[in-house]
Amino acid sequence: MVQDGERTSVDDCGAASVRQVGRQVGQQVERQGEGASIAERLDRFFDELHRIDVALADYGRRLGLSDSTMCVLDYLNDHDGVSQREICDYTMLPRQTVNNVISSFMDQGYIRFGESEGDRRVKTVWFTESGRRYCNALIAPERGAEYRAMSELDPDLRDAMIRGMEIFGREFRRQLRAVKL
Hints:
Layout: E1 2-3, E2 6-7, H1 15-31, H2 38-62, H3 67-78, E3 82-83, H4 84-91, H5 95-107, E4 111-115, E5 123-127, H6 129-151, H7 155-178
Antiparallel strand pairs: 1-2, 3-5, 4-5
Helix pairs in contact: 3-6, 4-5
Domain HTH marR-type: 42-177
InterPro entries: HTH_MarR-typ, WH-like_DNA-bd_sf, WH_DNA-bd_sf
Organism: Bifidobacterium myosotis
């Protein structure tokens, strides 16, 4: 990150100053006439994503589960038979954290290990019958809430929201890759 002509790493900045730099860039764009309230809209966008994350974390806490456990359960719900590496890659959780969650599930009889079709050295994670029931009991209410919330939106608004997220995500990734470090 470059701030006032000098190079500063993100580690040298607190979250507030990173947000402040983002606002400064946003204000520069606004002065160029490319968006009257981009910084404000970005704040609203990321604040709403944060509130969704907080709601999901609160749901997990009410169940007595950590965010990591819920994250692994949610991924396994849709991807039974994956490797721990795939779980780490998707959830962005550290290997040790995923290993601890998986070990706990194994101790409780919720999962079993299998061999990968492509590489016998890679162990895949599969739900047992009791593990599938356990997962469904926890994840189904969350998914139901997601479905009901989405169904409250007008179909055109749903499509616009998804289309907007896809376009924003693609452009954000492109812009981030272009940042000179």
